[in-house]
């Protein structure tokens, strides 16, 4: 069997039997830019952005798609989503800084986070960030105070805790009652916040938000969130007369990394959610607010591939074969963190039959440093290139320098051209923030204190 049959994917394979991404030969990419290497397919990112817009255009014309930068944020990515007409969701001063450096219009930025610092809030206010998504009552009080001090009047959206436990990894659930995110609908916290906001001239309340989790495949929890939010909006309208201009349903739409993860087409799911929101609001005779969706993974996940060089191969008779690569949990921590299951193939042997099964391991000093368990591959040899698919989201953005491994470069590929959008980290950069006090300098002539 060939990789294309086993994994049921449409690979682009050139006449040398090499994998191609965005018209670029992966073997050449590795030779030019080194490995590990993140490869981002520009057309796929653009196509995913367009799928969202196309799905909502007809069912809910007053919509906005806001890219959740936590999935993958660099200045080039800001430029890409801007060109595709998306807004941007940032969740820290660092993400906000990145967006501003890229020239992303501040008024199209949504600022999230359950514990934004005063410094971060001030940064948002001074730069005129479009909407601040307020997570809790303390933050609301702080923001009102800061708005007064800076003589600004931020537009805010309240993040609600709808009490919905979506079916996904526990670490990726965010809408359940026992969650650190958002203000309670059931316990009256959100209502209290609305009253505070309406009594203050310092902030302008636009509407409500919920994000129930990530890597969710079912549509039902999203519809349940629509139910909770719209019912809350109707209740607030009755109690206070306030009509929401924005209904933000967050992100969280799952992508399939392997054959077992079955997903309906994004266009269908997004369309269904949009239609349902419209129906619910119509049933409540609620003037249609702007519908906002905040996808991260489903915009960039499928557009990313990580390329590694195969190193040592260890065959333990009767146990398993470990195939080590030159990266690991440092560039893809999702396997260790969430038991994520990825697929991969030897990019230089795409037309060779898969006759072996290996376990792909990284180079970190840690037994949990696994990338793929039991992967069918062509006969592997040191120097082969392994491509791991669908690594565009929450890989580069969650990468670390554990074991002092430099973070890989990111190249953007399109139409046979490759462009570096993030340089590979250097050893110099790894030590650039280290300070070495004079008394700790290693002097060969001085005796070590401990022997
Ligand atoms: N909006 C908010 C408020 C969020 O917290 C998130 C993700 C998103 C939107 C985008 O969700 P997405 O469409 O990407 O699922 N590190 C985990 C995922 C954490 C998601 C955090 N919030 C992972 O690697 O699976």
How would you describe the overall organization of this protein?
The chain has 451 residues and is of the alpha/beta class. The chain has 2 domains: 3-41 and 303-423, Lyase, Ornithine Decarboxylase, Chain A, domain 1 (Beta Barrel); 112-295, Alanine racemase (TIM Barrel). It is built from 13 helices and 21 strands. The chain has helices at 3-7, 26-33, 42-57, 75-83, 93-101, 118-126, 137-150, 189-199, 220-240, 266-283, 297-300, 334-338, 427-431, and strands spanning 12-13, 19-21, 24-25, 37-41, 63-68, 87-90, 109-111, 131-134, 155-161, 183-184, 204-209, 246-248, 290-293, 304-316, 320-325, 344-346, 356-361, 370-377, 385-389, 409-414, 417-422. The strands form 3 sheets. Strands 4, 14, 15, 16, 17, 18, 19, 20 and 21 form a 9-stranded mixed sheet that branches. Strands 5-6-7-8-9-11-12-13 form an 8-stranded parallel barrel, surrounded by 6 helices. A 3-stranded antiparallel sheet has the order 1-2-3. Helix 5 links the parallel strand 6 and strand 7 (109-111). Helix 3 runs parallel beside helix 10, helix 6 (118-126) crosses helix 7 (137-150) and helix 9 (220-240) packs parallel to helix 10 (266-283). The protein is globular and about 70 Å long. Ligand LLP is lined by residues 68, 70-71, 89, 112, 172, 211, 214-215, 250-253, 294-298, 334, 338, 393-394.
């Amino acid at each position: 069997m060939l990789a294309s049959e086993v994994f049921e994917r449409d690979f682009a394979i050139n006449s040398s039997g090499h994998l191609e991404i965005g018209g670029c030969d992966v073997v050449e990419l590795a030779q030019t830019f080194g490995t590990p290497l993140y490869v981002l397919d520009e057309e796929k990112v653009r196509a995913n952005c367009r799928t969202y817009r196309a799905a909502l255009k007809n069912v809910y014309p007053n919509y906005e798609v806001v890219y959740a930068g936590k999935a993958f944020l660099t200045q080039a990515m800001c430029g890409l989503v801007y060109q595709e007409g998306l807004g941007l969701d940032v969740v820290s001063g660092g993400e906000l800084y990145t967006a501003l450096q890229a020239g992303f219009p501040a008024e199209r930025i949504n600022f999230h986070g359950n514990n934004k610092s005063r410094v971060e809030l001030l940064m948002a206010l001074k730069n005129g960030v479009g909407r601040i998504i307020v997570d809790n009552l303390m933050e609301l009080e702080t923001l009102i105070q800061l708005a007064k001090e800076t003589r600004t009047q931020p537009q805010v959206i309240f993040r609600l805790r709808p009490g919905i436990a979506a079916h996904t990894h526990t670490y990726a659930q965010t809408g359940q009652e026992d969650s650190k995110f958002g203000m309670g609908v059931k316990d009256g916290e959100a209502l209290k916040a609305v009253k505070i906001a309406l009594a203050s001239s310092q902030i302008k309340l636009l509407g409500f938000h919920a994000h129930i989790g990530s890597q969710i495949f079912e549509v039902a929890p999203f519809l349940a969130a629509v139910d909770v939010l719209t019912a809350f909006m109707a209740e607030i309208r009755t109690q206070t007369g306030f009509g929401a201009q924005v209904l933000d349903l967050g992100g969280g739409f799952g992508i399939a990394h392997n054959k077992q993860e079955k997903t309906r087409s994004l266009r269908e799911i997004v369309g269904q959610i949009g239609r349902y929101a419209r129906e619910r609001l119509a049933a409540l005779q609620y003037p249609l607010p702007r519908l906002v969706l905040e996808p991260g993974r489903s915009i960039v996940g499928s557009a990313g591939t990580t390329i590694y060089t195969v190193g040592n191969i260890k065959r333990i008779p009767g146990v398993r074969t470990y195939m080590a690569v030159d990266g690991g949990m440092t560039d893809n921590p999702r396997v260790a963190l969430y038991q994520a299951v990825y697929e991969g193939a030897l990019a230089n042997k795409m037309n060779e039959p898969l006759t072996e099964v290996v376990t792909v391991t990284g180079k970190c000093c840690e037994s949990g440093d696994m990338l793929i368990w039991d992967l069918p591959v062509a006969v592997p040899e040191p120097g082969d290139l392994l491509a791991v698919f669908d690594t565009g989201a929450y890989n580069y953005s969650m990468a670390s320098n554990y074991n002092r491994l430099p973070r890989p470069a990111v190249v953007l590929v399109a139409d046979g051209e490759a462009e570096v959008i993030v340089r590979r980290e250097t050893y110099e950069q790894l030590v650039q923030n280290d300070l070495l006090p004079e008394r700790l300098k290693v002097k060969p002539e001085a005796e070590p204190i401990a022997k």
